[in-house]
Design a protein that fits this description.
Blueprint: H1 3-17, E1 25-30, E2 33-35, E3 51-53, E4 59-67, E5 71-77, E6 86-87, E7 92-93, E8 95-96, E9 104-110, E10 113-114, E11 121-123, E12 127-131, E13 140-150, E14 156-160, E15 164-167
Parallel strand pairs: 3-15, 7-14
Antiparallel strand pairs: 1-2, 1-4, 4-11, 4-12, 5-9, 5-13, 6-8, 10-11, 13-14, 13-15
Length: 168
Amino acid sequence: MNTTRFLVPFALAAALSAQANDYIAMRLNSGTSGAPPTLSCGLPFSCTPPGFTVAPGAPVDVIILGQLNGLFAIGASFDIANMVCLPLGAGFANSLALNPGNIITVVIGVCAQTDNGRCNGGTTGVMRLLTVPAGIPPGALAFQAIGASPLSAGGNGLAFSIPVVMNF
């Protein structure tokens, strides 16, 4: 009996279901408040989002680290109570944390600047993402990025960033 033939599918399934490191990184900030606390690729992925608070009328900036000249998108959802942790399988690193039925596309772009060795070669640089409207009732908005990335199993694919919740 060839045990390799039986072990390989189990090893592949374990590799695909395991959470990869965060191969793209997203950090949102407003003034001195932001999340996650550091901007670094390779942080252990978690579907539990770090959060920060923004005052009404304040600008919110974002920076993405990803594959040089690779596409990225940032999605958002007001549905904080129904966030998920959905692995999408082969070709995707990490999990989708935003409820798939309630995602709003916020921005699509390219990591066209050099990241000076912090990640996979590319960054967006600091971008103004939005300004929280003055007079908005208190609430929260969750963000998550997806972008081109090398995969831990080899080759290239897409990776989800750690999600972030912005309270306002």
